[in-house]
């Protein structure tokens, strides 16, 4: 099939107008966005209700005074400056920015779920406990492991929890091992979590094909080593094909295997880490199971363990009494304790179970197959223009690099900026570190073939621009609201508040 020849660039961002910044600047004293009915209670001085030292002293005249349509337009316009999975393809490798189905949101907003209080007596939230248990059971089935804790609130939090359980199990044996082995193609949070847990990290250099080097593992695995932490599929989108042998080797020398399961989008319904010999792993509900990433907001990184590590799970655990009844179990003498206030981010659990139930076993498997097919489709169509540093069949994501474009003075960051002009969120840049100049694309299963073709056509058009007119790429974006930002200042000193211009201040004075 022919790819579209007209990338989206001509249609990009038609709604941008010159005066869109100015709504708050239109402040006029006396404008109101609300009308309250006359008060029917006696007026009371604020200091009679709130201690005077807590009363606000500053002058509020700098705040804009606007009508309701102006306020609504301001915020609606701001929302259109954002880019999300509801806007278009979001190929941010490793992050699995798949579409978040709206049925999940409906379920999470049902009043019985949304309004339940974390301190509500157990007997009044039986339905919620049952839902959590059902999710745990589904995740056990998906991972092939024996038990799950839903408490951790992020992938990295799950990693720390898992490593703490390994440590507790070794301590119970009287074994104070000090090192953890981590391949260089593992996610960066893996060494960070091991260190947070008090271990020293030994990095295993991967083979030329980007996969775990069993001989290096064999050499490094001593009775000082607590175990292996391995991301599978790894950050190159490659399946660690020696995972079962690695587990055998580690177990034979008294260690444990932690698998970073954040990339389960490539395995769900096809292969189970528990069956490969993995002892403990985490899942990112905010990746694989379609819950929102939340801009740093609530996430959920459940941790799954085998029978040997089950006693160490965070407490309380959930115990099923019968078909309909689930209770908290606090009688867990070997538990590592709580890792989160209350029981984790419940709303994420509702969304994930809604997704799992809506998809069913067949649907989950189909999603995995489509995610892998989409990544390979992109690899196939872009490998003539962009170098693939670690070749071989990829799973859910594909890593290119910018080596060919460097000949024209263009770097991966320039390509990312130019892609914004074409209406796409950029892929992940310069990660993983084992692939210098990386451009890491994860299309996910959410995208149609038409959208994938548009992305491919855009990337090819950019490769052509690099050859024929590199300046246009090096100075991109040209059509975005903002041009190139000082990325360090944007990250370190973000401007997150509107501040009045001198004109507004003068009007208020
Ligand atoms: C492979 C992998 N492991 C771990 C993490 C960490 O997850 P989180 O950001 O939820 O802490 C990520 C995040 O994207 C990841 O891609």
From TrEMBL:
Its cofactor is pyridoxal 5'-phosphate. Residues 1-20 are annotated as: Disordered. The modification N6-(pyridoxal phosphate)lysine is found at residue 287. It is an enzyme of class 1 (oxidoreductase). GO terms for molecular function: glycine binding; glycine dehydrogenase (decarboxylating) activity; pyridoxal phosphate binding. Residues 50-314 form the Glycine cleavage system P-protein N-terminal domain. The glycine cleavage system catalyzes the degradation of glycine. The P protein binds the alpha-amino group of glycine through its pyridoxal phosphate cofactor; CO(2) is released and the remaining methylamine moiety is then transferred to the lipoamide cofactor of the H protein. This is Probable glycine dehydrogenase (decarboxylating) subunit 2. It comes from Chloracidobacterium thermophilum (strain B). The gene is gcvPB.
């Amino acid at each position: 099939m022919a790819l579209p020849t007209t990338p989206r660039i001509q249609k990009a961002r038609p709604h941008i107008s010159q005066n869109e910044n100015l709504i708050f600047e239109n402040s006029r004293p006396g404008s109101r966005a609300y009308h309250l009915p006359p008060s029917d209670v006696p007026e009371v001085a604020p200091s009679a209700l709130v201690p005077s030292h807590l009363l606000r002293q500053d002058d509020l005249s700098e705040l804009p005074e606007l009508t309701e349509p102006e306020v609504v337009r301001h915020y609606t316009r701001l929302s259109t400056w954002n880019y999300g999975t509801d806007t278009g393809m979001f190929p941010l490798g490793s992050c699995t920015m798949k579409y978040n189905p709206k049925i999940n949101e409906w379920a999470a907003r049902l009043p019985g779920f949304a309004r339940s209080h974390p301190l509500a007596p157990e007997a009044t939230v039986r339905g919620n406990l049952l839902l959590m248990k059902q999710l745990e059971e589904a995740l056990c089935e998906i991972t092939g492991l024996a038990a799950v804790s839903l408490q951790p609130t992020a992938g990295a939090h799950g990693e720390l929890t898992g490593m703490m359980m390994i440590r507790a199990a070794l301590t119970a044996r009287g074994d104070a091992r000090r090192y953890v082995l981590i391949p260089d193609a593992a996610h960066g949070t893996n060494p960070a979590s091991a260190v947070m847990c008090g271990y020293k990290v030994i990095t295993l250099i991967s083979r030329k094909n980007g996969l775990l080097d069993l001989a290096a593992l064999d050499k490094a695995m001593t009775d000082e080593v607590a175990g292996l932490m391995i991301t599978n599929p790894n950050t190159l989108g490659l399946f660690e094909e020696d995972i079962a042998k690695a587990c055998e080797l580690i177990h034979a020398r008294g260690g444990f295997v932690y698998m970073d399961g954040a990339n389960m989008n490539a395995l769900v319904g096809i292969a189970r880490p528990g069956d490969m010999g993995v002892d403990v792993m985490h899942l990112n509900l905010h990746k694989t199971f379609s819950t929102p990433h939340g801009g740093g907001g609530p996430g959920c990184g459940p941790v799954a363990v085998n029978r040997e590590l089950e006693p160490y799970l965070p407490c309380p655990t959930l115990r099923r009494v019968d078909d309909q009844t689930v209770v908290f179990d606090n009688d867990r003498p070997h538990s590592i304790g709580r890792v989160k206030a209350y029981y984790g981010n419940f709303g994420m659990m509702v969304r994930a179970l809604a997704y799992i139930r809506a998809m069913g076993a067949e649907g989950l498997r189909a999603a995995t197959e489509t995610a892998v097919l989409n990544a390979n489709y992109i690899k196939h169509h872009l490998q003539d223009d962009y170098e693939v540093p670690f070749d071989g069949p990829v799973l859910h994501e594909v890593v290119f690099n910018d080596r060919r474009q460097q000949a024209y003075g263009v770097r991966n960051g320039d390509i990312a900026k130019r892609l914004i002009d074409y209406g796409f969120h950029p892929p992940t840049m310069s990660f993983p570190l084992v692939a210098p100049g990386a451009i890491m694309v994860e299309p996910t299963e959410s995208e149609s073939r038409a959208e994938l073709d548009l992305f491919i056509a855009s990337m090819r058009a950019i490769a052509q621009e690099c050859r024929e007119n590199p300046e246009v790429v090096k100075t991109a974006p040209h059509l975005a609201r903002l041009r190139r930002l000082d990325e360090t200042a944007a990250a370190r000193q973000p401007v997150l508040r509107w501040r009045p211009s001198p004109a507004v201040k003068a009007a208020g004075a």
